[in-house]
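Retro notes, item 3 of 5
We never archived the inputs for the magnesium ion complex last cycle. Fixing that now. Sequence and ligand:
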Amino acid sequence: MNTRELWQSALAEIELALSRANYSTWFKNTSIVKFDEGTVYVGVPNEFVKDWLITKYHSFILKTLRDLNEHVRTVEYCISKSNDNPKKDVEVGPTEKQPFLRLPFSETKEDGLNPKYTFQNFIVGPFNELAYAAAQAIVNHPGAQYNPLFIYGGTGLGKTHLLQSVGNEIKRRFPDFKVFYTSLERFSVDYVNSMHANKINNFKEKYRKYDVLIMDDIQFVSGKEKTQEELFYLFNTLHEQNKQIIFSSDKHPNFILGLEDRLQSRFNAGMIIDISQPDFESRFAIVRSKVKESTSFISDEILEYVAESVQGSIRELEGVLNTILMQSQLKGRVMQLQEVKQLIKNNIKTKKNISLRDIIKIVSDFYGIEDAAIYNKTRRKDIVKPRQVAMYLLREDFDVSYPAIGETLGGRDHTTVIHSYEKIKNDLTTDPVLMKEVAELRSLFT
Ligand code: ADP
Ligand code: MG
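Structure as it came back at the time:
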Protein backbone atom coordinates (compact mmCIF):
# COMPACT_ATOMS: atom_id res chain seq x y z
CA MET A 1 0.00 0.00 0.00
CA ASN A 2 1.47 3.36 -0.90
CA THR A 3 0.74 6.72 0.69
CA ARG A 4 -1.78 7.76 -1.92
CA GLU A 5 -3.73 4.52 -1.60
CA LEU A 6 -3.56 4.74 2.15
CA TRP A 7 -4.96 8.25 2.19
CA GLN A 8 -7.66 7.40 -0.30
CA SER A 9 -8.78 4.48 1.80
CA ALA A 10 -8.73 6.68 4.87
CA LEU A 11 -10.76 9.37 3.13
CA ALA A 12 -13.29 6.79 2.09
CA GLU A 13 -13.77 5.86 5.74
CA ILE A 14 -13.83 9.46 6.88
CA GLU A 15 -16.34 10.44 4.24
CA LEU A 16 -18.70 7.79 5.50
CA ALA A 17 -18.52 9.13 9.01
CA LEU A 18 -18.97 12.84 8.31
CA SER A 19 -21.61 15.01 6.78
CA ARG A 20 -20.92 15.98 3.19
CA ALA A 21 -20.31 19.61 4.14
CA ASN A 22 -17.88 18.78 6.90
CA TYR A 23 -16.05 16.32 4.76
CA SER A 24 -15.50 18.67 1.88
CA THR A 25 -14.67 21.63 4.09
CA TRP A 26 -11.97 19.91 6.08
CA PHE A 27 -10.69 17.12 3.92
CA LYS A 28 -10.73 18.53 0.44
CA ASN A 29 -7.21 19.13 -0.83
CA THR A 30 -5.56 17.04 1.80
CA SER A 31 -3.02 14.33 1.13
CA ILE A 32 -0.25 12.38 2.73
CA VAL A 33 2.94 14.20 1.90
CA LYS A 34 5.31 11.92 3.70
CA PHE A 35 5.44 8.72 5.65
CA ASP A 36 8.45 8.39 7.82
CA GLU A 37 9.22 5.96 10.64
CA GLY A 38 5.59 5.43 11.54
CA THR A 39 4.62 9.08 11.26
CA VAL A 40 2.13 10.07 8.62
CA TYR A 41 2.45 13.71 7.54
CA VAL A 42 -0.89 14.94 6.34
CA GLY A 43 -0.65 17.93 4.06
CA VAL A 44 -3.42 20.50 4.43
CA PRO A 45 -4.08 23.72 2.49
CA ASN A 46 -3.85 26.25 5.33
CA GLU A 47 -3.34 26.91 9.02
CA PHE A 48 -7.02 27.11 9.72
CA VAL A 49 -7.72 23.63 8.43
CA LYS A 50 -4.68 22.34 10.24
CA ASP A 51 -5.91 23.62 13.61
CA TRP A 52 -9.36 22.32 13.01
CA LEU A 53 -8.16 18.84 12.09
CA ILE A 54 -5.94 18.70 15.14
CA THR A 55 -8.63 19.75 17.57
CA LYS A 56 -11.61 18.00 16.06
CA TYR A 57 -10.51 15.04 14.05
CA HIS A 58 -7.06 14.00 15.13
CA SER A 59 -7.93 10.85 17.03
CA PHE A 60 -10.38 9.77 14.37
CA ILE A 61 -7.82 10.26 11.62
CA LEU A 62 -5.20 8.42 13.59
CA LYS A 63 -7.47 5.50 14.33
CA THR A 64 -8.60 5.27 10.73
CA LEU A 65 -5.03 5.20 9.47
CA ARG A 66 -3.95 2.68 12.05
CA ASP A 67 -6.79 0.39 11.19
CA LEU A 68 -5.70 0.51 7.59
CA ASN A 69 -2.01 0.07 8.19
CA GLU A 70 -0.25 -1.33 11.21
CA HIS A 71 2.90 0.69 10.59
CA VAL A 72 1.19 3.95 11.36
CA ARG A 73 2.10 5.26 14.80
CA THR A 74 1.34 8.99 14.77
CA VAL A 75 0.00 11.70 12.53
CA GLU A 76 1.43 15.18 12.00
CA TYR A 77 -0.13 17.97 9.98
CA CYS A 78 1.68 20.36 7.73
CA ILE A 79 0.77 23.02 5.25
CA SER A 80 1.40 21.88 1.77
CA LYS A 81 0.81 23.84 -1.37
CA SER A 82 0.97 21.14 -3.99
CA ASN A 83 -0.69 18.62 -1.82
CA ASP A 84 -2.76 17.11 -4.56
CA ASN A 85 0.32 15.62 -6.07
CA PRO A 86 2.93 14.43 -3.67
CA LYS A 87 6.08 13.76 -5.64
CA LYS A 88 6.19 10.13 -4.95
CA ASP A 89 3.78 7.59 -3.58
CA VAL A 90 6.08 5.82 -1.21
CA GLU A 91 5.25 2.42 0.15
CA VAL A 92 3.95 2.41 3.66
CA GLY A 93 5.87 -0.13 5.69
CA PRO A 94 9.47 -1.20 6.09
CA THR A 95 9.88 -2.70 2.64
CA GLU A 96 7.76 -2.95 -0.39
CA LYS A 97 7.22 -6.67 -0.60
CA GLN A 98 7.02 -7.39 3.04
CA PRO A 99 3.91 -9.31 3.92
CA PHE A 100 2.58 -8.38 7.27
CA LEU A 101 -0.01 -9.91 9.46
CA ARG A 102 -2.19 -7.57 11.39
CA LEU A 103 -3.64 -9.52 14.24
CA PRO A 104 -6.94 -8.36 15.62
CA PHE A 105 -6.23 -6.49 18.82
CA SER A 106 -7.66 -9.07 21.15
CA GLU A 107 -5.49 -11.74 19.58
CA THR A 108 -2.22 -9.97 20.01
CA LYS A 109 -2.10 -11.78 23.30
CA GLU A 110 1.43 -12.93 23.83
CA ASP A 111 0.76 -16.62 24.03
CA GLY A 112 -1.83 -17.04 21.28
CA LEU A 113 -4.17 -18.89 23.61
CA ASN A 114 -7.89 -18.42 23.65
CA PRO A 115 -9.32 -19.16 27.11
CA LYS A 116 -12.60 -20.36 25.65
CA TYR A 117 -11.00 -23.67 24.68
CA THR A 118 -10.67 -25.89 27.71
CA PHE A 119 -10.83 -29.55 28.63
CA GLN A 120 -14.00 -28.76 30.59
CA ASN A 121 -15.95 -28.19 27.40
CA PHE A 122 -14.16 -30.87 25.39
CA ILE A 123 -16.25 -34.00 25.00
CA VAL A 124 -14.32 -37.24 24.89
CA GLY A 125 -15.52 -40.27 22.97
CA PRO A 126 -14.03 -43.23 21.13
CA PHE A 127 -13.19 -40.99 18.18
CA ASN A 128 -10.79 -38.76 20.10
CA GLU A 129 -9.97 -40.58 23.35
CA LEU A 130 -6.41 -41.47 22.39
CA ALA A 131 -5.65 -37.91 21.47
CA TYR A 132 -7.26 -36.81 24.71
CA ALA A 133 -5.23 -39.29 26.75
CA ALA A 134 -1.99 -38.10 25.18
CA ALA A 135 -3.00 -34.51 25.86
CA GLN A 136 -3.65 -35.39 29.51
CA ALA A 137 -0.27 -37.10 29.81
CA ILE A 138 1.32 -33.96 28.46
CA VAL A 139 -0.39 -31.57 30.82
CA ASN A 140 0.68 -33.81 33.70
CA HIS A 141 4.32 -33.89 32.66
CA PRO A 142 5.09 -31.51 29.82
CA GLY A 143 8.07 -32.62 27.77
CA ALA A 144 8.42 -35.97 29.51
CA GLN A 145 6.89 -38.24 26.92
CA TYR A 146 5.01 -37.99 23.63
CA ASN A 147 7.40 -35.47 22.27
CA PRO A 148 6.52 -34.26 19.76
CA LEU A 149 2.85 -35.06 19.89
CA PHE A 150 1.36 -34.95 16.45
CA ILE A 151 -2.43 -34.82 16.18
CA TYR A 152 -4.05 -35.20 12.81
CA GLY A 153 -7.60 -35.41 11.55
CA GLY A 154 -10.10 -33.82 9.21
CA THR A 155 -11.22 -30.27 9.57
CA GLY A 156 -13.67 -29.39 12.30
CA LEU A 157 -12.93 -32.44 14.42
CA GLY A 158 -11.42 -30.63 17.37
CA LYS A 159 -7.68 -30.36 16.77
CA THR A 160 -7.48 -26.69 17.58
CA HIS A 161 -9.74 -27.10 20.56
CA LEU A 162 -7.56 -29.87 21.96
CA LEU A 163 -4.27 -28.08 21.33
CA GLN A 164 -5.53 -24.88 22.86
CA SER A 165 -6.85 -26.75 25.89
CA VAL A 166 -3.42 -28.26 26.44
CA GLY A 167 -1.85 -24.81 26.34
CA ASN A 168 -4.42 -23.31 28.70
CA GLU A 169 -4.15 -26.20 31.13
CA ILE A 170 -0.36 -26.17 31.25
CA LYS A 171 -0.45 -22.47 31.93
CA ARG A 172 -2.87 -23.06 34.77
CA ARG A 173 -0.83 -25.84 36.33
CA PHE A 174 2.62 -24.43 35.67
CA PRO A 175 2.33 -20.67 35.79
CA ASP A 176 6.06 -20.25 35.18
CA PHE A 177 6.03 -22.14 31.91
CA LYS A 178 6.28 -20.15 28.74
CA VAL A 179 3.58 -21.57 26.52
CA PHE A 180 3.09 -20.45 22.96
CA TYR A 181 0.39 -21.34 20.47
CA THR A 182 0.72 -20.49 16.82
CA SER A 183 -0.08 -21.89 13.42
CA LEU A 184 2.41 -22.77 10.75
CA GLU A 185 1.13 -19.88 8.65
CA ARG A 186 1.65 -17.37 11.42
CA PHE A 187 5.03 -18.79 12.21
CA SER A 188 5.93 -18.40 8.58
CA VAL A 189 4.73 -14.81 8.43
CA ASP A 190 6.61 -14.03 11.60
CA TYR A 191 9.73 -15.55 10.11
CA VAL A 192 9.47 -13.63 6.84
CA ASN A 193 8.76 -10.38 8.66
CA SER A 194 11.79 -10.89 10.89
CA MET A 195 13.95 -11.60 7.88
CA HIS A 196 12.87 -8.41 6.18
CA ALA A 197 13.33 -6.37 9.30
CA ASN A 198 16.77 -7.87 9.87
CA LYS A 199 15.59 -9.26 13.15
CA ILE A 200 16.16 -12.92 12.62
CA ASN A 201 18.13 -13.21 15.84
CA ASN A 202 15.24 -11.83 17.83
CA PHE A 203 13.02 -14.30 16.09
CA LYS A 204 15.26 -17.24 16.97
CA GLU A 205 15.61 -16.09 20.53
CA LYS A 206 11.91 -15.62 20.96
CA TYR A 207 10.96 -19.11 19.84
CA ARG A 208 13.83 -20.84 21.61
CA LYS A 209 12.75 -19.62 25.00
CA TYR A 210 9.41 -21.44 25.03
CA ASP A 211 8.82 -24.39 27.31
CA VAL A 212 5.82 -25.50 25.31
CA LEU A 213 5.42 -24.79 21.61
CA ILE A 214 2.11 -25.62 19.98
CA MET A 215 1.88 -25.31 16.23
CA ASP A 216 -1.48 -25.80 14.56
CA ASP A 217 -2.27 -26.67 10.94
CA ILE A 218 1.14 -27.52 9.70
CA GLN A 219 -0.24 -29.01 6.49
CA PHE A 220 0.38 -25.68 4.75
CA VAL A 221 4.14 -26.15 4.44
CA SER A 222 4.45 -26.63 0.75
CA GLY A 223 6.53 -23.96 -0.92
CA LYS A 224 7.84 -22.69 2.41
CA GLU A 225 11.34 -24.14 2.36
CA LYS A 226 12.91 -21.44 4.51
CA THR A 227 10.20 -21.70 7.10
CA GLN A 228 10.65 -25.45 7.22
CA GLU A 229 14.37 -25.11 7.64
CA GLU A 230 13.88 -22.70 10.50
CA LEU A 231 11.29 -24.97 12.04
CA PHE A 232 13.66 -27.88 11.81
CA TYR A 233 16.40 -26.10 13.74
CA LEU A 234 13.95 -24.74 16.25
CA PHE A 235 12.50 -28.18 16.73
CA ASN A 236 15.92 -29.70 17.40
CA THR A 237 16.85 -27.02 19.90
CA LEU A 238 13.64 -27.34 21.86
CA HIS A 239 13.54 -31.09 21.66
CA GLU A 240 17.06 -31.50 23.01
CA GLN A 241 16.01 -29.56 26.07
CA ASN A 242 12.90 -31.68 26.53
CA LYS A 243 10.62 -28.80 25.79
CA GLN A 244 7.17 -29.98 24.84
CA ILE A 245 6.22 -29.60 21.18
CA ILE A 246 2.80 -30.29 19.74
CA PHE A 247 1.71 -30.19 16.14
CA SER A 248 -1.54 -30.63 14.32
CA SER A 249 -2.33 -31.24 10.71
CA ASP A 250 -5.23 -32.38 8.61
CA LYS A 251 -3.21 -35.41 7.46
CA HIS A 252 -0.63 -37.86 8.68
CA PRO A 253 2.87 -36.41 8.25
CA ASN A 254 3.64 -38.98 5.59
CA PHE A 255 0.97 -37.45 3.41
CA ILE A 256 1.66 -33.78 3.83
CA LEU A 257 2.49 -32.30 0.49
CA GLY A 258 5.93 -30.74 0.31
CA LEU A 259 6.93 -31.65 3.85
CA GLU A 260 10.69 -32.13 4.08
CA ASP A 261 11.89 -35.66 4.83
CA ARG A 262 13.86 -34.66 7.86
CA LEU A 263 10.86 -33.00 9.49
CA GLN A 264 8.70 -35.94 8.56
CA SER A 265 11.08 -38.32 10.27
CA ARG A 266 11.19 -36.11 13.38
CA PHE A 267 7.41 -36.24 13.56
CA ASN A 268 7.41 -39.98 13.07
CA ALA A 269 9.82 -40.36 15.95
CA GLY A 270 7.25 -38.86 18.30
CA MET A 271 3.67 -39.82 18.95
CA ILE A 272 1.21 -39.60 16.07
CA ILE A 273 -2.48 -39.86 16.88
CA ASP A 274 -5.52 -39.24 14.79
CA ILE A 275 -8.92 -37.84 15.66
CA SER A 276 -11.64 -39.49 13.62
CA GLN A 277 -15.28 -38.74 12.97
CA PRO A 278 -17.40 -38.78 16.10
CA ASP A 279 -19.87 -41.62 16.55
CA PHE A 280 -23.53 -41.05 17.36
CA GLU A 281 -23.15 -41.10 21.16
CA SER A 282 -20.34 -38.59 21.01
CA ARG A 283 -22.28 -36.34 18.66
CA PHE A 284 -25.20 -36.46 21.02
CA ALA A 285 -23.01 -35.67 24.02
CA ILE A 286 -21.49 -32.75 22.13
CA VAL A 287 -24.76 -31.13 21.11
CA ARG A 288 -26.19 -31.68 24.55
CA SER A 289 -23.26 -29.96 26.22
CA LYS A 290 -23.41 -27.06 23.77
CA VAL A 291 -27.07 -26.51 24.49
CA LYS A 292 -26.35 -26.58 28.21
CA GLU A 293 -23.84 -23.79 27.68
CA SER A 294 -26.43 -21.71 25.85
CA THR A 295 -29.45 -20.04 27.36
CA SER A 296 -31.93 -21.83 25.12
CA PHE A 297 -33.70 -25.10 25.47
CA ILE A 298 -33.78 -27.88 22.91
CA SER A 299 -35.44 -31.19 23.73
CA ASP A 300 -33.45 -34.42 23.83
CA GLU A 301 -35.65 -35.76 21.09
CA ILE A 302 -34.47 -32.99 18.80
CA LEU A 303 -30.88 -33.35 19.90
CA GLU A 304 -31.00 -37.02 19.08
CA TYR A 305 -32.38 -36.21 15.71
CA VAL A 306 -29.60 -33.68 15.10
CA ALA A 307 -26.90 -36.07 16.25
CA GLU A 308 -28.35 -38.75 14.05
CA SER A 309 -28.70 -36.73 10.87
CA VAL A 310 -25.65 -34.48 10.98
CA GLN A 311 -22.85 -36.92 10.46
CA GLY A 312 -20.12 -34.56 9.41
CA SER A 313 -17.59 -32.76 11.54
CA ILE A 314 -18.19 -31.23 14.93
CA ARG A 315 -18.02 -27.85 13.32
CA GLU A 316 -20.93 -28.78 11.06
CA LEU A 317 -22.78 -30.13 14.04
CA GLU A 318 -22.26 -26.84 15.83
CA GLY A 319 -23.36 -24.96 12.73
CA VAL A 320 -26.66 -26.79 12.56
CA LEU A 321 -27.20 -26.43 16.27
CA ASN A 322 -26.56 -22.71 16.09
CA THR A 323 -29.05 -22.39 13.28
CA ILE A 324 -31.65 -24.11 15.42
CA LEU A 325 -30.83 -21.97 18.43
CA MET A 326 -31.02 -18.87 16.31
CA GLN A 327 -34.36 -19.82 14.82
CA SER A 328 -35.70 -20.54 18.25
CA GLN A 329 -34.54 -17.11 19.40
CA LEU A 330 -36.06 -15.41 16.38
CA LYS A 331 -39.34 -17.16 16.93
CA GLY A 332 -39.17 -16.62 20.66
CA ARG A 333 -40.20 -20.18 21.43
CA VAL A 334 -38.98 -23.75 21.62
CA MET A 335 -38.57 -25.46 18.26
CA GLN A 336 -40.68 -28.41 17.20
CA LEU A 337 -39.10 -31.55 15.84
CA GLN A 338 -40.90 -31.09 12.54
CA GLU A 339 -39.42 -27.61 12.07
CA VAL A 340 -35.98 -28.87 12.90
CA LYS A 341 -36.34 -31.64 10.37
CA GLN A 342 -37.17 -29.08 7.72
CA LEU A 343 -34.28 -26.88 8.74
CA ILE A 344 -31.85 -29.73 8.59
CA LYS A 345 -33.18 -30.93 5.31
CA ASN A 346 -32.36 -27.53 3.87
CA ASN A 347 -29.02 -27.48 5.56
CA ILE A 348 -27.45 -30.80 5.06
CA LYS A 349 -27.38 -31.21 1.33
CA THR A 350 -23.84 -31.79 0.29
CA LYS A 351 -21.84 -28.66 0.55
CA LYS A 352 -19.11 -30.20 -1.48
CA ASN A 353 -20.73 -29.48 -4.82
CA ILE A 354 -20.90 -25.78 -4.34
CA SER A 355 -18.33 -23.79 -6.28
CA LEU A 356 -16.26 -20.92 -5.06
CA ARG A 357 -18.13 -18.60 -7.43
CA ASP A 358 -21.46 -19.78 -6.02
CA ILE A 359 -20.31 -19.03 -2.52
CA ILE A 360 -19.26 -15.53 -3.45
CA LYS A 361 -22.50 -14.99 -5.30
CA ILE A 362 -24.49 -16.05 -2.26
CA VAL A 363 -22.51 -13.75 0.01
CA SER A 364 -22.83 -10.76 -2.31
CA ASP A 365 -26.55 -11.33 -2.87
CA PHE A 366 -26.99 -11.60 0.84
CA TYR A 367 -25.32 -8.24 1.42
CA GLY A 368 -26.97 -6.69 -1.62
CA ILE A 369 -23.82 -5.91 -3.57
CA GLU A 370 -22.50 -6.87 -6.99
CA ASP A 371 -20.35 -9.98 -6.81
CA ALA A 372 -17.87 -8.36 -9.18
CA ALA A 373 -16.97 -5.92 -6.42
CA ILE A 374 -15.79 -8.74 -4.19
CA TYR A 375 -13.28 -9.82 -6.79
CA ASN A 376 -11.76 -6.42 -7.39
CA LYS A 377 -9.69 -4.19 -5.20
CA THR A 378 -12.12 -1.62 -3.95
CA ARG A 379 -11.89 -0.81 -0.27
CA ARG A 380 -15.35 0.62 0.02
CA LYS A 381 -16.74 -0.17 3.41
CA ASP A 382 -19.88 -1.80 2.06
CA ILE A 383 -17.66 -4.16 0.07
CA VAL A 384 -14.88 -4.77 2.54
CA LYS A 385 -17.03 -6.53 5.07
CA PRO A 386 -18.79 -8.93 2.67
CA ARG A 387 -15.43 -9.70 1.14
CA GLN A 388 -13.96 -10.49 4.54
CA VAL A 389 -16.95 -12.64 5.40
CA ALA A 390 -16.57 -14.49 2.10
CA MET A 391 -12.91 -15.10 2.86
CA TYR A 392 -13.77 -16.31 6.31
CA LEU A 393 -16.39 -18.76 5.08
CA LEU A 394 -14.21 -20.06 2.26
CA ARG A 395 -11.56 -20.87 4.76
CA GLU A 396 -13.62 -22.00 7.69
CA ASP A 397 -16.34 -24.00 5.98
CA PHE A 398 -14.82 -25.02 2.69
CA ASP A 399 -11.16 -25.46 3.55
CA VAL A 400 -9.89 -23.31 0.74
CA SER A 401 -6.26 -22.39 1.41
CA TYR A 402 -5.31 -18.78 2.17
CA PRO A 403 -3.23 -18.38 -0.99
CA ALA A 404 -6.02 -19.79 -3.16
CA ILE A 405 -8.53 -17.41 -1.62
CA GLY A 406 -6.15 -14.50 -2.17
CA GLU A 407 -5.63 -15.44 -5.76
CA THR A 408 -9.32 -15.75 -6.51
CA LEU A 409 -10.29 -12.57 -4.76
CA GLY A 410 -8.38 -10.00 -6.70
CA GLY A 411 -4.86 -11.34 -6.38
CA ARG A 412 -4.57 -10.45 -2.74
CA ASP A 413 -1.62 -11.48 -0.68
CA HIS A 414 -2.37 -14.46 1.54
CA THR A 415 -1.50 -12.42 4.63
CA THR A 416 -4.40 -10.12 3.80
CA VAL A 417 -6.62 -13.16 3.70
CA ILE A 418 -5.30 -14.37 7.05
CA HIS A 419 -6.02 -10.97 8.47
CA SER A 420 -9.57 -10.95 7.14
CA TYR A 421 -10.18 -14.44 8.38
CA GLU A 422 -8.94 -13.62 11.85
CA LYS A 423 -10.82 -10.37 11.98
CA ILE A 424 -14.15 -12.03 11.24
CA LYS A 425 -13.38 -14.94 13.51
CA ASN A 426 -12.63 -12.51 16.27
CA ASP A 427 -15.60 -10.23 15.59
CA LEU A 428 -17.85 -13.27 15.68
CA THR A 429 -17.13 -13.63 19.37
CA THR A 430 -18.43 -10.15 20.15
CA ASP A 431 -20.76 -9.02 17.38
CA PRO A 432 -24.23 -10.58 17.50
CA VAL A 433 -25.29 -9.04 14.19
CA LEU A 434 -22.36 -10.61 12.42
CA MET A 435 -23.05 -13.92 14.15
CA LYS A 436 -26.55 -13.87 12.81
CA GLU A 437 -25.42 -12.96 9.32
CA VAL A 438 -22.90 -15.75 9.21
CA ALA A 439 -25.42 -18.26 10.53
CA GLU A 440 -27.91 -17.20 7.88
CA LEU A 441 -25.29 -17.38 5.16
CA ARG A 442 -24.37 -20.87 6.24
CA SER A 443 -27.95 -21.93 5.94
CA LEU A 444 -27.90 -20.69 2.34
CA PHE A 445 -25.03 -22.95 1.30
CA THR A 446 -27.16 -25.93 0.53
P1 ADP B 1 -10.21 -28.36 13.84
O1 ADP B 1 -9.14 -27.53 14.44
O2 ADP B 1 -9.91 -29.82 13.88
O3 ADP B 1 -10.61 -27.92 12.47
P2 ADP B 1 -11.79 -27.20 15.94
O4 ADP B 1 -10.95 -27.51 17.12
O5 ADP B 1 -11.75 -25.81 15.42
O6 ADP B 1 -11.52 -28.21 14.76
O7 ADP B 1 -13.29 -27.61 16.30
C1 ADP B 1 -14.42 -27.16 15.59
C2 ADP B 1 -15.49 -26.77 16.56
O8 ADP B 1 -15.96 -27.90 17.25
C3 ADP B 1 -14.99 -25.83 17.63
O9 ADP B 1 -15.98 -24.88 17.91
C4 ADP B 1 -14.74 -26.69 18.83
O10 ADP B 1 -14.90 -26.01 20.04
C5 ADP B 1 -15.79 -27.78 18.65
N1 ADP B 1 -15.28 -29.05 19.15
C6 ADP B 1 -14.38 -29.83 18.57
N2 ADP B 1 -14.16 -30.95 19.27
C7 ADP B 1 -14.96 -30.89 20.34
C8 ADP B 1 -15.21 -31.76 21.44
N3 ADP B 1 -14.57 -32.93 21.56
N4 ADP B 1 -16.10 -31.37 22.36
C9 ADP B 1 -16.76 -30.22 22.24
N5 ADP B 1 -16.60 -29.35 21.21
C10 ADP B 1 -15.69 -29.68 20.27
MG1 MG C 1 -8.07 -25.96 13.59
